[in-house]
């Protein structure tokens, strides 16, 4: 089993990466593989609502969204990490995930997910709430921890000083591993995925 993590920071080795790495190291101890996917510092398009998504994913292929969704098809669980610059998730991770979920939602459905927010001080819980909405619309069980999934640090390296934050990451990893193993046991016992109704779509204005 494998967990695909997304570093929503332009800094490849900053505090967001360090927080995800703590999750990854504990996952390995639990017998679960992991990969940290870097969004990087290149521009990321936002979703235009063009409706041109195809089996290949988003119609725009000049950034890493389709590369990520290809990996998502094979992953068993997800952790999305974001830095908090202005009391909400980074613009790049929101644009990235909007397009990933809009174009390839089936790759995420019924797989457990968690979000992690990293800030100097405030805005983590608002960011945590915003990120969790991707899970809610895609039938994804949400993995929690012993505190809201947040780590504090301003400049790279300061996350090391947040002992409780890193503890929260390790407990998140343990809970993710437990959930994945429960799902695997359910599959082995013949428990099928729930049936999904899609007969109705009611607009507010008609």
From TrEMBL:
Pfam (any one): FMN_red
One MF term in the entry's GO annotations: oxidoreductase activity
UniProtKB keywords: Flavoprotein, FMN
Sequence ranges assigned to domain NADPH-dependent FMN reductase-like in this UniProt record: 1-149
InterPro entries linked: Flavoprotein-like_sf (IPR029039), FMN_Rdtase-like_dom (IPR005025), ISF_SsuE-like (IPR051796)
Regions annotated as coiled coil: none
Name listed for the protein in its UniProt record: NADPH-dependent FMN reductase
Record organism: Eubacterium ramulus
């Amino acid at each position: 089993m494998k967990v695909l993590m997304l570093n929503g920071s332009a800094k490849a080795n900053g505090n967001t990466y360090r927080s995800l790495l703590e999750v990854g190291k504990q996952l390995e101890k639990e017998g679960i593989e992991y990969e940290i996917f870097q969004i990087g510092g290149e521009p990321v398009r936002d979703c235009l609502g063009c409706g041109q998504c195809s089996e290949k994913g988003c119609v725009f292929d000049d950034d890493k969204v389709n590369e990520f969704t290809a990996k998502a098809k094979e992953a068993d669980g997800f952790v999305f990490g974001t830095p908090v610059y202005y009391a909400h998730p980074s613009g790049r991770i929101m644009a990235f995930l909007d397009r990933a979920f809009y174009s390839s939602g089936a790759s995420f459905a019924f797989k457990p997910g968690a979000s992690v927010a990293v800030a100097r001080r405030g805005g983590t819980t608002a960011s945590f709430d915003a990120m969790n909405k991707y899970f809610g619309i895609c039938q994804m069980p949400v993995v929690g921890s012993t505190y809201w999934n947040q780590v504090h640090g301003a400049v790279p390296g300061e996350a090391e000083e947040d002992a409780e934050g890193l503890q929260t990451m390790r407990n998140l990893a343990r809970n993710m591993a437990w959930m994945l193993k429960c799902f695997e046991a359910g599959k082995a016992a013949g428990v099928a995925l729930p049936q999904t109704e899609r007969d109705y779509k009611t607009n507010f204005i008609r």
